[in-house]
Amino acid sequence: MQFHLNGFLPGDPSILPIPASRAPSGLSDVDVLIVGCGPAGLTLAAQLSAFPDIRVRIVERKPGPLRIGQADGIACRTMEMFQAFGFAERVARESYWVNETTFWKPDAADPRRIARHSRIQDTEDGLSEFPHVILNQARVHDFLLETMRNSASRLEPDYEVEFIGLDRPANTTEAESHPVTVRLKRLGPAGSEREEVVKARYVVGCDGARSAVRKAIGLELRGDSANSAWGVMDVLAITDFPDIRMKAAIQSASQGSMLVIPREGGYLVRFYVELDKLAKDERVASRSLEVEDLVAAANRIAHPYRIDVKEVARWSVYEIGQRLCDRFDDGCEDAGRPPRVFIAGDSCHTHSPKAGQGMNVSMADGFNLGWKLAAVIRGTSPAQLLLSYSAERRKLAQELIDFDREFAAMFSARPAGAGPDAQRARNPAEFQRYFVKQGRFTAGTAVRYEPSAICADGTHQGLASGYQIGMRFHSAPVVRLADAKPLELSHRITADGRWRIVAFAGAGDPFDGGSGLSELVSFLDHDQASPVRRYTPLGDADAVIEVIAVLQQAHREVDLARVPPFLQPAKGRYGLTDYEKVHCADQRPGSDIFDLRGIDREQGCIVVVRPDQYVADVLPLTEVERLSGFFERILREPARG
Known about the structure:
Blueprint: E1 29-35, H1 39-48, E2 56-60, E3 73-74, H2 76-85, H3 88-94, E4 96-97, E5 100-106, E6 114-121, E7 133-134, H4 137-150, E8 158-159, E9 161-167, E10 180-186, E11 194-205, H5 212-216, E12 222-239, E13 247-251, E14 257-262, E15 269-277, H6 291-301, E16 307-324, E17 341-343, E18 349-350, H7 358-377, H8 387-412, H9 428-437, H10 439-442, E19 477-480, E20 486-488, E21 499-504, H11 516-526, H12 531-535, E22 545-551, E23 570-571, E24 576-577, E25 582-585, H13 593-596, E26 605-609, E27 615-619, H14 624-634
Parallel strand pairs: 1-2, 1-11, 2-8, 5-13, 11-17, 21-22, 22-25
Antiparallel strand pairs: 3-7, 4-7, 5-6, 9-10, 10-11, 12-15, 12-16, 13-14, 14-15, 16-18, 19-20, 19-25, 21-26, 23-24, 26-27
């Protein structure tokens, strides 16, 4: 991280100073009103808190932050996002790491007993620099809340405030500053409750599966239920089950299935336990199930092993179901009307928790929407950019629903050979193969956005085969030129709303006057068509687009004095030099980024990276007109006085 730019400041550098330009405080007139402090809402708030000139309010009907329970799986891609917010290392230190997964099925010699039939590596090598981990959702909330609290915005949730309704005139235009009128109720003891009205530019409903915001804009969750009841419990227990500290998928002959998820801290364990089939239209609440029913079912499934539960930290029962909204906003592409109200997370997609995707996808919703809202509110991008949120995230949610439906069905199926219902039985090995096949999907790294204004068509994809357009910018090791520090390149892309132009130099001397990198730098620095010159406000060299260079040479072979001033810009009130723009390939065996990401060594290339770390385009170093044209579609020139 960089700090002390505008003068020495003692203390914790993660607690940012409050700028004079911070938006004035006020609760009744806001740029963005977020309803709900779940994973989606807090991620969105954390992203928006990076912009102190944006007035944000986040409300929650509960009396305070989440303290225990709910989701716990954190995918590799989510850890990459946490790195952008600055707390991935803390999550990694505190969490349980899922290194292997074991699979159990009925013992061939005695089907009444379960036996381990295989174990596999949980995540493939090289998929991410981060592991798949397990950590209580409440702790994830804590980290996001701390990010908000330490930001220059000093953003804090407003608890015990309930959303009542909203109104947005049908003929709202982009010129209207705060067109959405929201009615809220401040909760309290009987007789002390009071209603208030908030005027907002944008409203985002992150208020869960029973979302009142969703209902207010006329949307509904559509889908079905699998008529199957499951229980989940976090327990401290004594057991002779040998894989109690491994992620374990158990399919018994006749007692159902169970998923074992070790938790952080070395002792706590989560069990997802299959209970009973439900009749059509039957709700699980009608069964009046208690935690003792979950414990008994877990012991039946795990036979001959015993699980002696000493303490239950949390438990609940639920029905498997997959539901999805038709869209995630109130916009209308046909009428050219950008949206003003959005929904995210469980408000627009719900599914079973066993695949560990709900919290991850919800936070990714917030990350996707946050930078877009910031760009539009700050005048960096046109309002039409906001239409891409629903287009991108709904498609992904549909893929998640399809995956979850198949995953749940396979896991709940009776193992082949374990009973008379042969037609619906499945070989447990089939479930394992599906688990392996979908590994990149569950890790969150298979997300691919379709071509749009912010994802190009891939004409020059061959220049960097490992940076697929529409997919996340897959990190790789590099060495910073100025101080020889080894680091992961993607860790340069923080959650600050900026675009990145990553220039990979071609063969030869990168700073020779005729090289592709030198020509690109000259264009970006001096040409009137340069997107950096066109869209950067006065006084901040890389406020909108940051340019990063990666050279093929070892860092000891490059003379820092030859680096062009454009790649060592003067910044801040003292005009201090930023030395952190130029990196070199890591020369250790198997670590060269050009080899790892399939970058054309002869030509080099440009990789354009979105603020949410997804690849937007791959171009030759010489394709400056196309580079300018890309940004011309999505950025606006600032007013210059």
